[in-house]
Write a structure and sequence with these properties.
The complex is a heterodimer of chains A (about 110) and B (about 120). Chain A has about 110 residues and is mainly β. Chain A is built from no helices and 10 strands. By secondary structure, chain B is mainly β. Chain B contains no helices and 11 strands. In chain B, the strands form 2 sheets. In chain B, strands 2, 4, 5, 6, 9, 10 and 11 form a 7-stranded mixed sheet that branches. In chain B, strands 1-3-8-7 form a 4-stranded antiparallel sheet, with no helix packed on it. Classes of the chains: A mainly beta (about 110), B mainly beta (about 120).
Chain lengths: ~110, ~120
């Protein structure tokens, strides 16, 4: 089973919006509304920021939003802030286990 | 607040078995319908789901690792453990234990341990 496909890098200036994509198949992203996104700062454990495609855990700013269309999911970060610079991983239920994307490094210019 | 802490050898020889434990505080691994999971991350690379176990003992494993992985519970110590056999350098990674916030099969992991680095080398 290959990882979900994410573009390796993305960037934006403070205040801008950036969208990170995650492409899978009908066996994972396209087959279930159980797509999550994690934010990971260097040397830290990942932090859940989106679950079930578009839901945010309490405490996660509404600048983070998720969506899905077909076999692809997206994470949009609006009003970029310096602290948003991190690695972002998508995560999807794949029928019998959870599958992660390869990660996207978001740089705030 | 659920807290998890990984422990185990930081160095394992090729072809041997990697064994890690995760000590849980703030929750009982024997209660509820939560699952308890292992996830790993090679240096500079992405996350990889290894597998999970429920209090009932039911397990789900990543198909790519299934033939080498075993996850078990130790209720008396409120711990769960990971064993990975026949390791190679490709198994060198930071290993995390984790648990979701909710008790659904489809809740993603929310609570994470700090991670422990395991290096496979002779």
């Amino acid at each position: 089973q290959s990882a979900l496909t994410q573009t390796p890098s993305a960037s934006g200036s403070p205040g801008q919006s950036v969208t990170i994509s995650c492409t899978g198949s009908s066996s994972d992203v396209g087959g279930y509304d159980f797509v999550s996104w994690y934010q990971q700062h260097p040397g830290k454990a990942p932090k859940l920021i989106i679950y079930e495609v578009l839901k945010r855990p309490s405490g996660v700013p509404d600048r983070f939003s998720g969506s899905k269309s077909g076999n692809a999911a997206s994470l949009t970060v609006s009003g970029l802030q310096p602290e948003d610079e991190a690695d972002y991983y998508c995560n999807s239920w794949a029928g019998s286990f959870w599958m992660f994307g390869g990660g996207t490094k978001l740089t705030v210019l | 607040q659920v807290q998890l802490q990984e422990s185990g050898p930081g160095l394992v020889k090729p072809s041997e078995t990697l064994s890690l434990s995760c000590t849980v505080s703030g929750a009982s691994i024997s209660s509820g319908t939560y699952y308890w999971a292992w996830i790993r991350q090679p240096a500079g690379k992405g996350l990889e789901w290894i597998g999970r176990i429920y209090a009932s003992g039911i397990t789900d494993y990543n198909p790519s690792l299934k033939s080498r992985v075993s996850i078990s519970l130790d209720m008396s110590k409120n711990q769960f453990s990971l064993k990975l056999t026949s390791v190679t350098a490709a198994d060198t990674a930071v290993y995390y234990c984790a648990r979701p916030r909710g008790s659904s099969n489809f809740d993603p992991v929310y609570y994470w341990g700090q991670g422990t680095l395991v290096t496979v080398s002779s």
